[in-house]
UniProtKB/TrEMBL annotation, chains A, B:
Keywords: Cytoplasm, DNA-binding, NAD, Repressor, Transcription, Transcription regulation. This is Redox-sensing transcriptional repressor Rex. It comes from Orenia metallireducens. Transmembrane segments: none annotated. Its main location: cytoplasm. Modulates transcription in response to changes in cellular NADH/NAD(+) redox state. InterPro entries: CoA-bd, NAD(P)-bd_dom_sf, Rex_DNA-bd_C_dom, Tscrpt_rep_Rex, WH-like_DNA-bd_sf, WH_DNA-bd_sf. Residues 86-187 form the CoA-binding domain. SMART domains: CoA_binding. NAD(+) binds at residues 97-102.
DNA sequence: TAGATTGTTAATCGATTAACAATC
DNA sequence: TAGATTGTTAATCGATTAACAATC
């Protein structure tokens, strides 16, 4: 894989900028300054300018993204981001695990909007209510290798229970998958050429829980004082 | 809110350690070294020791967590983490939005396992299949203020479409909610005393898309050479 | 021109890694 | 005692913020 200099942190924010710019374009906004965008997103304008600068260096882009005194041209910047992030290319994605979380991902609009399409869905259980959805093909997990290899699927989402995640990962990697979004609450081991992103739903909630319990102990403390 | 010195990055890893320790305890493991834990989690042993050290300083804990030459006593460390993260306290959470994502969250086992219970569910649509689930109370969004105020609910999950998210946030904050896990793909503005965590499902996928398109352009490059 | 805002460098801040004495 | 592993400080690395000249 090419060594990109761009960090995950910056990449995540670029994704956020992308989505915001898209909405701005829909609303026929021509220019947006880093200050305005920052207010919309709760990010400092310094940070936004710096991220876009780093990104421009990363893709070795000649011209400036913005116009001094005016801001960034929405459609122009959007197009560059779209191209570099590989969006709206109609990428076909496999989903393994069609339980309630998998079902939610299938009907999650945000993926489709950016051209990332869950097309092949695998589960051990064939009798699911979500089966008759348009544009999606349902298969048994037995067929993963066959279908993914044949269709050269490179990206997959794991939405199976934690204890099945590593087995599933092994199978899809064997079938040629190189990019995995892992919703199973466990670490999975893959070869060097494969990239995994963990999307762990409970981590965020645990973080909040920490602050809640701190808040409460503070309240107790205040009460004890008064 | 008390100024905690612990960073979000560390906090997230503590949540990961917690879950791992829980599994180790179930498997009757007495001691685990930072090296072994690191191998399970794909995190360096240095990082783990340092995180636990920072955490210990943060909670002003006298005694060492680990035993030199042996590692960390699983149950002991688990108990400390549990207490400090406020887990297994049977916290009652409100969920606003019972669409397919909301439905998936309701049946997501990981939350329950750590004592974070989605108890009050609100939606504009009363005719949902998920309605007849045990231990959960369904209400119309009209009743948010009444129910949350009465039951002093402090934590809530937003799983409504992006354009409704800010309105929902305003209502639940008004009703006394102080901690929000936001699944809507948009930034929401809240007062200073309220904490929001964004759980944005498409950001991770966009990140992968970036690497996919880089990989492909590299392949094209190699092909062009040969 | 005056005002606004970018691009970019330098300064600061925070997080990770390295190293090793302490000690089980 | 020898081997292992923690606790903790110092060194390094990376990310954010500040600052301001360039320029629309």
């Amino acid at each position: 894989m090419r060594e990109t200099t761009i960090s995950n942190t910056v990449l995540e924010r670029l994704a956020i900028y992308y989505r915001s710019l898209k909405r701005l374009e829909e609303n026929k906004v021509d220019y947006i300054s880093s200050k305005e965008l920052g207010e919309i997103l709760g990010i400092s304008s310094d940070q936004i300018r710096r991220d876009l600068y780093d990104f421009r260096m990363d893709i070795s882009y000649y011209h400036d993204f913005g116009v001094r005194g005016r801001g960034y041209p929405v459609s122009y910047l959007l197009k560059i981001l779209e191209k570099s992030l590989g969006l709206n290319n109609n990428v076909e994605i496999a989903l393994i695990g069609a339980g309630s979380l998998g079902g939610a991902l299938i009907s999650y609009d945000e993926f489709k909007k950016i051209g990332l399409n869950i097309k092949y869905v695998f589960d051990i259980n064939f009798n699911k209510a979500i089966r008759d959805l348009a544009g999606i093909e349902f298969y048994d997990v037995e067929q993963i290798d066959e279908i993914l290899t044949k269709n050269q699927v490179k990206m997959a989402i794991i939405a199976v229970p934690a204890k099945a995640a590593q087995d599933v990962a092994d199978i899809i990697v064997e079938a040629g998958v190189e990019l995995i979004l892992n919703f199973a609450p466990t670490y999975i081991e893959v070869p060097n050429n494969v990239m995994v992103r963990n999307e762990d739903l409970s981590i965020g909630l645990i973080g909040l829980s920490y602050y809640l319990s701190n808040k409460e102990s503070e309240l107790t403390f205040v009460k004890n004082l008064g």
